[in-house]
Amino acid sequence: MIYQHTSEPPVLRDGAPQVGVHMVDAGAEPFAEVWLTDKPARSGTLDALVWAEDGEYLFCAFRVEKQAVYRQPVRAAYEAAFELADRLGYTKIFRMWNLVGHITRDNAEGMENYRDFCIGRAEAFERWSSRIGSMPAATGIGALSDGIDCYFLACREGKATFLENPLQTPAYKYPDQYGPKSPSFARATYLTQVEEHATNIVYVSGTASIIGDETVCLEDIDGQLDLTIGNIETLISRGNLWLHGIGDGYRIADLDFIKVYVRDAEHLPVVRAKCAEVFAAHANVVYLNVDVCRPDLLVEIEGICRQEIADR
Ligand SMILES: O=C(O)c1cccc(O)c1
Ligand SMILES: CC(=O)C(=O)O
């Protein structure tokens, strides 16, 4: 994945999927996000899907080009991806990114692009509920040009536990004031590592200043940041993992590979300062100046936790 100044649809390059996503504005530095394996990998393309697998994990990417109305092409693309994941035997999609061009602008019917996207995605999950049961941890965030880039990681059965946050209504149960179909995602995924000495991992979804189903701290960047970080702390806490039948627990300083999405460039300095305070000094953090999926959300944060409290 190259987070860059233009969009380049998924291709196989030297046997590896490569995708350029338009998520970085002209004044900021592009960066690469690389998913590595130490096992032999096999890759391929199938229509618009580009994928690679190593026997344990599947990576798959696809792009839905600009549409007057997204729901049908999004549903078709998601269903094609589910079919591939099912055929290759990776039926637990545990982390997904949806980079939606002009996410809060209207489509040709006057519906917000995000709500339009959510309809197609929800229909695909409904159709595949018996094979691809659970909704993954996900990010749904603005991209800087038209079209929607999606990519995901999937694994075999038995390793993934999907987490919710007791402070937040599950997104898939949001009432219809946020759109005709609720967003199809879990707040996080806990992955049990089977290898000896490997630590378990929590993939934290894009998280924002939402309590219940409501945006809180309107027009208050400091408040939204505090609530967002608090939501992540609750989600990864020992108590919440215990509620999900898991013995581990994590702290905000365990969060790494962090993406911080900031709607207004003017807020970047205060967001950077706060993040420098709460995240570990060695954490890998990138800041992206893009729209968030609700017009009233100023900031959204995602990341990956790896260090178990018990190990420290
Ligand atoms: O719709 C999503 O997949 C999504 C997931 C996380 C945060 C967010 O704003 C949106
Ligand atoms: C961020 C967001 O949209 C959600 O958590 O629902």
UniProtKB/TrEMBL annotation:
<dbReference type="GO" id="GO:0016787">
    <property type="term" value="F:hydrolase activity"/>
</dbReference>
<keyword id="KW-0378">Hydrolase</keyword>
<protein>
    <submittedName>
        <fullName>Chorismatase</fullName>
        <ecNumber>3.3.2.13</ecNumber>
    </submittedName>
</protein>
<feature type="binding site">
    <location>
        <position position="121"/>
    </location>
    <ligand>
        <name>substrate</name>
    </ligand>
</feature>
<feature type="binding site">
    <location>
        <position position="174"/>
    </location>
    <ligand>
        <name>substrate</name>
    </ligand>
</feature>
<dbReference type="InterPro" id="IPR031038">
    <property type="entry name" value="Chori_FkbO_Hyg5"/>
</dbReference>
<dbReference type="Pfam" id="PF21168">
    <property type="entry name" value="FkbO_Hyg5-like_N"/>
</dbReference>
<dbReference type="InterPro" id="IPR035959">
    <property type="entry name" value="RutC-like_sf"/>
</dbReference>
<feature type="domain" description="Chorismatase FkbO/Hyg5-like N-terminal">
    <location>
        <begin position="33"/>
        <end position="154"/>
    </location>
</feature>
<feature type="binding site">
    <location>
        <position position="187"/>
    </location>
    <ligand>
        <name>substrate</name>
    </ligand>
</feature>
<feature type="binding site">
    <location>
        <position position="114"/>
    </location>
    <ligand>
        <name>substrate</name>
    </ligand>
</feature>
<dbReference type="InterPro" id="IPR049368">
    <property type="entry name" value="FkbO_Hyg5-like_N"/>
</dbReference>
<feature type="active site" description="Proton acceptor">
    <location>
        <position position="300"/>
    </location>
</feature>
